[in-house]
Structure formats: structure tokens, C-alpha cells
Amino acid sequence: MGQTKLWFLAGLLGLCTWPEPGKGSLPFHMNSVIQVVEVLESHHLDGHLNLTVTELARGLGCCDSEFYQLLLGEAPAVPPDLPFLSQEQRSFLMRVLKHKVQASSTEQGVVLLPDGTTVAVSPLVAGIEAGLKGRREMPLPPEALEPLLVTTEPLNQTHPGLPLTIDALYAVTIAKALGVAFLLAQANKSQVLMGPNGCWDSVSEPQNFTLLGRPSNLTDAFINGALDGVILGAHLAGQGMPVAPLSTLLREYYAGDGLAGDGQARSNFRRQNFVQLTEAGQLEEQVVRSLQLLRALPWMAPLLSGVGDGDLLAAASRAVQEFTEAYLGRCLFLSPHQPGTCYTNGATYPNCKGNGICLLLSFCLLLPCCSFVVGSDGYMYQGRGWHWVGAHTRGYNSKGYGVSFIGDYMDTLPEAFALMLVRDNFLPCAVKGAKLQANYTVHGHRQMVHTACPGNILYREIQTWQGFK
Predict the structure, then answer these.
(1) Residue 465 and residue 469: Cα distance in Å, rounded?
(2) Going by C-beta distance under 8 Å and a sequence separation of 6 or more, which residues neighbour residue 429?
(3) Which of 2, 136, 340, 416 has the fewest CB atoms found within 10 Å of its own CB?
(4) Mean pLDDT: which of 151-160, 373-382, 391-400 is highest?
(5) Tell me, what's the pLDDT at 333?
(6) Could you tell me the pTM of the whole model?
(7) Strand pairing partners for 400?
(8) Measured between alpha carbons, how far is 89 from 98 in angstroms, rounded to an integer?
(9) How would you class 113 by CB atoms within 10 Å of its CB: exposed for 0-12, middle for 13-18, buried for 19 or more?
(10) 441 pairs with which residues across the strands?
(11) Range with the lowest mean pLDDT among 19-23, 125-129, 223-227, 238-242?
């Protein structure tokens, strides 16, 4: 095929309602987390609970290892019973706070979000706690370093003589986990470095999340929770006191209009927001610092014994490079996903067969037909993808790909970020990944079949794009 053709379509789909939790075990939704947090907050305010929600979480076993205690302080003592919580709330809280991958490839300590993604709660809690404590920059103890590097910065020689410091926010969320995951893979103690994603057993009453491949210590859900922990922690550290209740913060970020009403400060923009927060080289530096601190802890001796700072720097550099390419890169539309899955910025989700993305938008109508679907939520979803012929434009499906924008664009444009996602990221990345020919052509749906699609205003917009014919 000398050229590749793309047809742009628009579809108007109805919003689905978020289901209410059932009467049995609490469903592993973020909504359930928020409900329990609200109960804890009410008892904190009336004096029955002398702990914040994140302090209580740490006292119940979330983020309570020596590494976290060095950076966040000792975990507080917690009352043996929490009489103001129901039995199902206590059970839910104990399960959701401890992240673990079982031998059966079931991942515990994760919850399903309204946008269809899954997050681990423990790195989220750790980041929020670090933010509430003011995002400490703490000096590393001398025993964590090689003698020649005790008073100088190995990654920054502009201020020689200053003590090495570790940023608690990055360390307790992503940096330590990324460094350890890479070292475990390097030592053949883990078969994969990062991932995978997984499937819930139900959308309305999710209880079990099963991974779709060989598990690592750094699953997709853990990474999502860690990125959210950094974003929410940084937000809190910049707020000063007093701060909004945690339940309000979670609701704004995961199910509302964004933090403080900022529509871009929502969970579905986590990768873009993390990149904006994290300066070049900063993550690599914090991975090194985290590994240096771990090296001083006796329980990490089997993994880090005899590993010098040069080795740590090399490991951190490779780990961050692979992590950035896999989760933060600009061209995340080129992964070999299977048909019938949805993906957002490189992550995959089951679609319309009983569980998946349909809980937010009724994508079931278009995903089986189009190659890709662009939502107003900042995500692009894979329908039939690159390798399967679509069913969107009769007579032309074998000659190109169909990209549908969700909405009615007769009189208005899609959100600017949705247009940029396709025009500035998807198309050039598809050429770079050899999915599209460099001389591809762009068409509106109405040029091929009798339809008003993709709408007058959107059609006028794509006429200005490179490749329009």
C-alpha cells in the first residue's frame, strides 16, 4: 500500500451510571475507599480517632517497613479494634492497604477507578503522607554511602561538600520500587521488570484482580498508584495548612472536576502530570538515593551486598530509561495489544465483554468497529487496532484505519487535548513506528459514505491537518 488512509468519525455515546456497592463485601472501587475515608474523617474530627487517615493506614500495616519509617517517621500505634467501622469496612481496609501479588497471579491491594484504570492503594497513601509532611528532603546517613561519596553529590557536582539528600515523596512512591524491581530482574529473581496489567472479575462488584502475564514487583496498578501518589503528594505539599479532607481530594482527583477544579489535574492525565512535575534526571537521582538508603538496611543485604555506587547509578539509569519508554513516552500507541482491548497511554483494559471500560462510557458501540476511539476523558482506546480490518466505512475498511472522536461535533470542537492527542502524538508516532506510511492521507467520514460524521466543525478542523485530502 503506497499510502495509508485514515477516516475520522464522531459518535455520540451515553454515559453509564456508576454502580452502587452491594450488601456483601465492599466492592474494590475507589468509591468504597472514599466511603471508608469519610467515616474515618468524621471520627477524627469528633475526637474519637486521634490519628489522620494516612497515619491510621500506616499503623494498620501500609508502608510500615524500616525504609518508610526512616522517611515518614514511625508508624503510630492503632487501636486494636475500630468500633466505628462495620465488619465489612474493616475487612476491606485491611485488604486494600497491603499490596501483594499472590502465587495465583491475583493482585491484592488494588481498586478499580471510574475511568477503568486500576491503582494500588499503598503507594498512593505513601505519597499523600509524604505530601502532608511537607515533602521532606532528608540527608542520607553516612553508612548508606561509599566513603568517597559521603560529602559530594555523584549526580550533581555543582555544590560539592553538601550532604546527599533523598526526596521522601519520590522515594516512598516510585523510586525505591523501580530500583528494587530492576535489581531483582537483573539478579534473575524476577522474570520481568515491570507490569503486567490485569482483569477484574466484575465491574459492578469487583473483588479479584488477576494479572494477564508473568508478574513483576512493579505491576501496572502499582505504577498508577505511585504516579498518583507523587501528584497528590506534590499538590498537598504546596497547599500549606489546613488542607481539604482526604475524601474531597480523592473525589476531585478520581471522579470529579480535578484538584481545585483544574480539569487537567485528574487521574486520567497522570502520566502527563508526572512528567511535568519530574525534572530531567530527577527520577534517576532519586532511584540511586533510594538504593543507597536501602543498602544501609540489614534486610536488603542479600540483594545489595557488594554493590557500589557506580553499579547503582548504572542500574538506575537503565531502570528509568525503560520505565520512561514504557509508561511516560510520547509514542505509547504502538504496543502489540490484542483486538477487543482498550488502552490509555500504553495501559490495556478489557473492553465490552462483561467488564472493562464500559463502566464510564458506552464504548461498546464503536470499539468493535473502529480502529481507535478518542474519548473526551483524555484517553485513546484501541478497538480493532492496527492488525485487524475495521467495520467503520463500508467499501474502504481494508484500505485504512478509522479513528472516532466520542461526541457531537456539528457545532463545537472536541477538547483541545483530544485533538492534540491525535494530531500531535498519535499520527507522528504511528509514522515513526511504521504503522502509517509517511505520506498518509486524512479524510472525513462524510467523504466516503453518506453521513454528517464527523460533524461540521470537526470536519473543518481536520481539513487543516497534514495529509488531509
Answers:
(1) 9
(2) 330, 331, 332, 333, 334
(3) 2
(4) 391-400
(5) 52
(6) 0.79
(7) 5
(8) 15
(9) buried
(10) 5
(11) 19-23
